[in-house]
Amino acid sequence: MPRRVMHSVDQHYGRSGLGSAIAQALRLAGKDGRPLTPIELAPLDHFHSRGRDATLELAALAEPGADTEVLDVGGGLGGPARTLAHEIGCRVTVLDLTEEFCRIGRELTRRTRLEKRVVFEHGDALAMPFPEGAFDLAWTQHSSMNIDDKERLYGEVHRVLRQKGRLAIHEIMAGPGGSLHFPVPWARDPAISFLRRPDAIRALVAALGFREIVWRDETELTLAWMRERLAAQAAQVAGPPPPLGLHLLFGAETPTILGNFERNLAERRVAVVKAVWERA
After folding, report:
1. What region does 51 belong to: left with phi over 0, alpha with psi -120 to 50, or beta?
2. Of 26, 27, 45, 83, which has the fewest CB atoms closer than 10 Å, so is most exposed?
3. What integer pLDDT is reported at residue 5 of this predicted model?
4. What are the angstrom distances between the C-alpha of 267 and each of 9, 48, 76, 154?
5. For residue range 5-26, what is the model confidence (pLDDT) as tens digits?
6. Where are the domains of the chain?
7. Which homologous superfamily does the CATH classification assign to the domain defined by 3-279?
8. Around 213, how many Cα atoms within 13 Å sit in the side-chain half-sphere?
9. Contact predicate 116/32, CB 8 Å
10. Residues in CB range of 42: below 8 A, 6 or more apart
11. How far apart are alpha carbons 56 and 221 in whole angstroms?
């Protein structure tokens, strides 16, 4: 990934003081100084639409088992990774470009006592620091939107998967409705937003040597969820938000960012897809 884009992506996600803000939020939520469960952290660390439910649904489609070696590409703070480790027993390596996410993710994993099952690697998904055939399952949830070179991304996934290994994705893609309304959760402007149409991604992954097992368009489901979430927020009595939530990542822009995501879904400027493939 070009250094300019890497720097911009890192600045977008790894805002200054994020670790301190999360520590303070945990104190306010009464979760300071004791072990945590992945469910307790879910409002914060599932940085994708439909949250923990979507992670569990993707796991049901991908069918990992106990001790499956999983690579979570762009795994952020590690919410899905800890869910897979806790619920199924997977061993998960989180690869993320944002060093601050890796640092905080390690601490949250320690607090959930899952550090023997979940590890973090700071690195670039276009040059994965892993040998060929290292993993049984490659996993991505809302992580490819900042990557322009999809060919190299999925080529690297193919390289690090074992034969018959699986690729599971839950991703935002380009819709037919035109240019996006910014800011959105993954970018404040078009400079670091790289979406392709679902049919293009579907063809690309197949051409790299993957056999399709599942393909689901979840745009309507995601739009309904987003509208329910915004309506619930609007109905709340005025006051501060709950201690744990995506406002810790987005700050004062949170209402605008979430509102734009709903608008982009409604106007079909974005699509949401879940899919599973098997490596030949």
Report:
1. left
2. 27
3. 77
4. 26, 19, 28, 28
5. 777 887 788 777 899 999 999 9
6. 3-279
7. Vaccinia Virus protein VP39 (3.40.50.150)
8. 17
9. no
10. 51, 52, 79, 83
11. 15
**Pairwise CA distance, residues 122 & 128, whole Å:** 10
**Dist CA 65 CA 87 (whole Å):** 10
Asked whether the CA dihedral 230, 231, 232, 234 is positive or negative, the reply is positive
pTM (2 decimals)? Answer: 0.95
What is the C-alpha separation between 233 and 256, in angstroms, rounded?
Answer: 13
CB neighbour list of residue 149: distance below 8 Å, 6 or more residues apart: 1, 126
Q: Please count the other Cβ atoms lying within 10 Å of the Cβ belonging to residue 148.
A: 17
Cβ neighbours of residue 72 closer than 8 Å, sequence gap 6 or more: 78, 80, 81, 84, 92, 93, 94, 95, 139, 140, 141
- Residue 147 · residue 1 · CB < 8 Å: yes
CA 59, CA 166: separation in Å to the nearest integer? 11
101 neighbors 76 (Cβ within 8 angstroms): yes
pLDDT (tens digit, 9 = 90+) per residue, 45-79? 999 999 999 999 999 999 999 989 999 999 999 99
Q: What is the dihedral of CA 276, 14, 104, 45, to 10 degrees?
A: -40
